[in-house]
Amino acid sequence: MEKAAGSPSVGGSYPQKNAEILSSQYGINLFLAGLLLTFAWAVHAVGISKSHLLSYLITLMLIQLLWMLWYLGRSCTQRRLIRDKDTHAGARWLKCGITLFAVITLILDSFKIGYYIDFSNCLSPTEGLFPVTHAVHTILQVYFLWCHAKDIIQSFKTLERFGVIHSVFTNLLLWTNGVLTESKHQLNEHKERLITLGFGNITIVLDDHAPQCNCTTTTLCSIFSQGIYYLYPFNIEYHILASTMLYVLWKNIGRKVEHHQQHKTPFKFHGITVGMIFGLVVLTSTIAIVVVYLIQIGRSKMKSELALTMFYLHAIFVLALMCTAGIVALLIYRLEDRSLDNSKNPARKLDAELLVGTAAGSWLLSWGSILAIICAQAHPKYTWYNLPYSVLVIIEKYIQNLFIIESIHREQEKVNDDIKTLRIVTISRGSTLSLTPSYKEIYNGRAALESGEVPCLLKGSVCRRENDRGAKEETSQDKSSVMHSASDISFYSRNSVTNNKRRILKNIAAFLFLCNLSLWIPPAFGCRPEYDNGLEEIVFGFEPWIIVVNLAMPFSIFYRMHSAASLFEVNCKT
User: Fold this and answer.
1) How confident is the model over 318-356, as pLDDT tens digits?
2) How far apart are CA 496 and CA 493, in angstroms?
3) Which residue ranges traverse the bilayer (predicted)?
4) Is residue 245 located within the same domain as residue 287?
5) DSSP state, 525?
6) Helices assigned H by DSSP within 297-385
7) Cα–Cα dist 145/192, whole Å
8) Partners of residue 472 on adjacent β-strands
9) CA of 446: how far to CAs of 24, 415, 497, in Å?
10) 570 half-sphere exposure, CB direction, 13 A CA radius
11) Residue 530 resides in a domain
12) Which domain holds residue 89?
């Protein structure tokens, strides 16, 4: 690689580096302008309406649509050319995941269109145009990511950098818009619960953006308005996943890759039954807890306290199990002597950075809760459960991040050359016969050993395959004998231990995968004790704590989904 980088390539890298810097600055300014516009609408700034924000987002989506159409058209004309691909980017399971979220996003857009039709008398045309544009944008973007997420662009690099980074920050702005809309809805529900519970010492003003006119069909309006907010969590995950996939595409522009065979690692259910069973138990119980929580919270003071106590006890139990599983996995890694893969990999690097970066959202909320418990003068009984819950959230994310990051950096297990070939000396009629079985046959022999059968290589016989029938024959023990050394037996025992470790790690990864999906559900669908226990709001003040929660919660929600995706990859790789 060093020799190939002569003076021409070094000189040519400066314009590309400048293009990378310029495009990143363009994207950041694009994002900041949209972020301020979103904030201005949220605080009801003078002269800023929702139509201004939607017009800006529509413009960004239309520009991205034009760029994607241009890229797809150029790719069709050059489809016969051999293109470099990043085998680590755009995994099939990731594409399937983003497709699922995109389908639900399209349902959300159809609800918005129906909502606009019912309130068309008092809504601006942009509120009807936005979901239509967004639906077209979603369909084309998913198709683009399915076909070109692995591309390593080597032509029109400067132009492509601007196009890709524009797409990255367009999705981030759409994610921000979804987060803000969903957070405002959650905040309004929280304020209504506080009114029900009689908190008179907190000034409560509902932030209502409802249309100032009557709906044409009341039943449909209610379905659309309520259904929209249950679909927003999937829309939010869709845009953040799209932005991460596009960011990897942007980092790969102009990248030089080594051409080597990438082994496919398909997901298999075999061997992970225990992890799946425990994980499904956690998932089922979590759904039940969320349903009961949403029904009971805000009904009365006693029911709210019981709902919070139930939530905290369940979460403490699940987090303790996850911590234990993570520690066991890390101990197994410490017992193994395997090197880490430190090669340049933008997708893997981004995964690690997102894990640590988004975990900071949960850590911020947890430390806020711990500080509130320490500083509060009065402590209702249920608030004490918040202390071990917050501590376990910090520890669990710390352990899980270590496990995932080490797992995605560990090299695939390689078979040593000196055990791939096993020489068996057979003495027959005074001559020496050397047979060299394949490693696959030896590996299959190990499976028989684990099932209680002694492989033919360790018996006093030699296994052969008959070409006409494919059957196995044994040579007569009177005319031959097999000599095997202690190293051959240790080969089988060593592989048996390795296989057991791998099975344990796969079960742990499967269990943690389902646990992270379980812990994604409560905050995504409105089960947020950070809002409802009231202790933090008393210590920090209502408005400051609500700002902290609204800023940190989106990162906490994304962390769980991203961890689940990373653990799925770990399970496939192990």
Assistant:
1) 999 999 999 999 998 888 766 676 667 777 788 888 888
2) 5
3) 26-47, 53-72, 93-117, 129-146, 229-250, 271-295, 311-333, 354-379, 504-526, 538-559
4) no
5) T
6) 301-335, 346-375
7) 41
8) 465
9) 54, 14, 11
10) 34
11) yes
12) 15-257
